[in-house]
Specification:
The protein is of the alpha+beta class and about 350 residues long. It is built from 5 helices and 18 strands.
């Protein structure tokens, strides 16, 4: 049973940018507190296995990649057991005598489904990995149509501490931006304007309909022309902002991945076809890193008080409506899974000042 505060299972999570997972390499990572070996074969196939050998619990990530019977395998560094990277099935137990009747195939280190597309690696996390049949209950995330480029042009990362839900709520919260992100290129709290936003439900979340960016959002002015922006949230923790004008398209994708207990990675990726953005990337990257780091910092500070006080979180009007929607979406998915999920969000027009 999924608790109200635990990250969702039976759903896809962002794992890593493709460029960070090199051929023939592996690394030990954590997803929802579970150790995972994430790697790529010499042939280029990305894979994810439970990073615990079925024999004596050694981390497979400390081993090496080998081939057994024409199959790519991870070899355990402790006793050399070999596990197929696609299925997690053990293909060889080197120490067994030919006189033994034990079959290697009776053991496995379970494999996670992996989807790689547009330079992004997603991993499906089932409720019970040991009993999982290998078939996800929902399709992997897809980018909106018309997004330019084969891979993201820029990737920025930050770390978050504290309850996972609070990190995700920060992803959809419109009211924090002028206070947490006080940069010259963003919004000044003293310049707050009345905003009206039109929302509709989507397959696994909600979307702010395409609209003209606010005049006090200075960063939007870079694209010029008759620009529009459309912002979408998808479970479990994906935010997509699509900005377009007559000539160019920009996508900002932010994903929050739960790693260890009370810890998460925030990854922001940008796709674009605008030459100006490519030219100013060396200047823009540190600004984006600072921007995202401010989110991680406020979550860390907030968590200090959560640990001390365990307070009841408050919601006040339309600025907090998106946070409430996230909680409703998560509850509906936890209760019905992807197959029985019914979006509880109704179309709505919301109002706030930022």
């Amino acid at each position: 049973m999924i608790s109200s505060t635990a990250p969702l299972k039976n759903i896809w999570y962002f794992a890593a940018p493709s460029r960070e997972v090199k051929k023939g390499k592996m690394s030990r990572q954590f997803l929802l507190g579970r150790p995972v070996v994430l790697g790529r074969t010499e042939e280029g196939q990305a894979f994810a296995l439970h990073d615990v050998c079925a024999h004596r619990a050694a981390p497979l990530s400390a081993g090496r990649q080998v081939t057994e019977g024409g199959r790519s395998c991870v070899e355990c560094p402790y006793h050399g057991w070999r596990f197929d990277v696609s299925t997690g099935k053990c293909l060889k137990i080197p120490a067994l005598s030919e006189k033994e009747e034990i079959k290697a195939g009776g053991f496995r280190s379970p494999a996670y489904p992996v989807h790689e597309d547009r330079g992004l690696i997603w991993v499906y996390v089932p409720e019970d990995l040991k009993r999982f049949d290998g078939t996800p209950t929902m399709p992997p995330p897809a980018l909106p149509e018309g997004v330019p480029g084969a891979v993201p042009k820029m990737v920025v990362k930050a770390h978050a501490e504290g309850p996972y839900d609070e990190a995700v709520i920060g992803l959809v919260d419109p009211a924090h931006t002028p206070y947490v992100h006080q940069q010259w290129f963003w919004r000044n709290p003293a310049e707050a304007q009345e905003k009206t936003k039109d929302y509709v439900p989507t397959d696994y979340g909600f979307k702010m309909k395409a609209h003209k960016p606010a005049s006090n959002g200075r960063a939007y002015k870079l694209i010029g022309g008759a620009a529009t922006t459309e912002i979408e949230f998808r479970l479990p923790a994906i935010r997509l902002e699509l900005i377009c004008n007559e000539k160019y398209t920009i996508l900002g994708l932010t994903a929050i991945t739960p790693t260890e207990d009370q810890k998460a990675d925030i990854t922001q990726m940008f796709f674009w076809d605008m030459p100006l953005l490519s030219a100013i990337k060396p200047f823009a990257y540190p600004l984006a890193k600072t921007f995202l780091g401010q989110d991680g910092n406020i979550l860390r500070l907030q968590n200090e008080n959560i640990v001390l006080e365990n307070p009841t979180m408050m919601y006040a009007g339309d600025p907090d409506r998106l946070a409430q929607w996230y909680v409703k979406l998560k509850r509906a998915f936890a209760e019905g899974g992807a197959e029985g999920f019914k979006n509880p969000i109704d179309p709505a027009v919301l109002h706030w000042r930022t």
